Amino acid sequence: MAPSTALSATEVYTLWVLIGTSIAIVANSFHGDGEPLMVSFAFSLFAFASTFSLIRWLGPSFMKVGLKGRDMAKAKRPEIPETMGAVCAVVYLLLMIAFIPFPFYKDIVAATSGGGNRDVVLHVEHVETGRFLHRFPHNKLASYLSGLLSLQAITLLGIGDDLLDIRWRHKVLIPALGAFPMLVVYFVDFGVTHVVVPVPLQRYFGQIFDLGFLYYVYMAAVAIFCPNSINMLAGINGVEVAQSLVIAVLLLLNDFLYLSPFTPYPHPAMDSHLFSIYFLLPFIGVSLALLCHNWYPSKVFVGDTYCYFAGMVFAVVGILGHFSKTLLLLFIPQMFNFLYSCPQLFHIIPCPRHRLPKFNAVTGLLENSVTEWTVPPSPLIAAALHLLHRLRLVGIKTNENGDIVESTNLTLLNLWILWFGPMKEDRLALSIVLLQTVCGLFALFARHQMALLVFPADNRSLWSFV
Ligand code: UD1
Ligand code: MG
């Protein structure tokens, strides 16, 4: 029997309360100065409520058109809807477009002639440069829209990937296509390609170094890495969304450090970090709703669409907010997973279509999944595998001749099982979430405390209160 798509009475009640609260906050913002931050929060409540219901309602329709997958870590391997990230992305994009008037309306009206608001007196320098208020200057609108364009592009490409099941070697470049609109607008609108040189290197390169077109290569690399690395740290219930939520919340924490009262008002990086908050709050709303359905035992899968979309949200805020290095610091588990996976990604070690941990139907626990060596590895690779085995970085099985016949798949999830033994799926997901949180908090702390070791100043002057 197909699972019911109806919302329970408690769910309906809770969602209405959330929607009512969000409408009240937005309505209230019209009386005052239009508080974009509060409205963004209200939009994220609305995003949660609408995504939560839509995912429940749309499941069967997705399955009917073939957007479904088998949950491989369950005894009966049930088929459930896939690509639910598309629902998140569509709700998110529509709300981000509806949000535009809140941070931009007054700037656009007041700074352009004939805006119908002529009694607003603005000084020339304010019209030229934007005002130093909690609203950003209207020239930020180009960045904002380019971010949305890139997110729209990646969503379309992600849905295409989920429909067509594109091969890995081709799909790694999909995010580069998605990032294209953002990079083009960056080129014509902002165009800064300078970086601050760390103190020890300043003797050779000076204080500021122009990376030129290499800066675009770097930004494209960030935009390729973020989505793909989330898609690679995947395969057990909830892990894709949960890791994205941790990254988003940590980014939000970092953003708030640049706002009053945590830093003296007004801080020069404040606008960039407000920009980031406006992108992150609704993302957290749609992702939390998805997690409710995707956490163990999953009722839906997120699809590559969600992984790409989430990664691109991070790339957009990191690149357009000019804190891509901080962003990358929050991807330590993903970076490790990527580097650890390289031998399989580059086919030095065979790479099966799926590398997710293997479900043992007798114990109900997840165990290491392996790649089988039909032809024994070359002596060099065998020596490397034996060494990694001794370092407890890979599990191997040998035959009576001492040839390697099996080695564990090189993913962080498998390594965790290798270190801590077989475990239940939700415990493994929770472990990864905790790891992500601890690494991220440490990285943020180190980023602000240790910046002084390599840079003349941390860009948050008041951090020393910690
Ligand atoms: C990536 C990984 C692949 C991993 C897969 C799992 C690389 C190079 N590729 O491939 O090793 O197996 O993600 O998502 O690292 N699934 C579950 N339970 C879950 C989530 C997914 O069983 O909680 C299965 C379902 O059958 C689902 C499928 O994984 O249909 C989705 O895989 P897909 O996203 O297409 O894999 P890739 O992203 O290509
Ligand atoms: Mg995937």
Account of the protein in words:
- The chain is built from 19 helices and 9 strands.
- With 466 residues, the chain is mostly helical.
- It has 2 domains: 345 residues, no CATH class; 63 residues, no CATH class.
- Helix 11 packs parallel to helix 13 and helix 12 packs antiparallel against helix 13.
- Bound molecules: uridine-diphosphate-N-acetylglucosamine and magnesium ion (MG).
- The site of magnesium ion (MG) has 4 residues, from helix 13.
Topology summary:
Elements: H1 9-31, H2 36-64, E1 68-70, E2 79-81, H3 85-99, H4 101-111, H5 124-129, H6 140-164, H7 168-171, H8 174-189, E3 194-196, H9 202-205, E4 208-210, H10 213-232, H11 239-256, H12 270-294, H13 303-320, H14 324-329, H15 332-345, E5 358-360, E6 365-367, E7 370-372, H16 379-390, E8 396-398, E9 404-408, H17 412-420, H18 425-449, H19 451-454
Antiparallel strand pairs: 1-2, 3-4, 5-6, 7-9, 8-9
Helix pairs in contact: 1-2, 2-3, 2-12, 3-6, 3-12, 3-13, 6-8, 6-13, 8-10, 8-13, 10-13, 10-15, 11-12, 11-13, 11-18, 12-13
Bound molecules: uridine-diphosphate-N-acetylglucosamine (UD1) and magnesium ion.
Uridine-diphosphate-N-acetylglucosamine (UD1) binds next to strand 1 and helix 10.
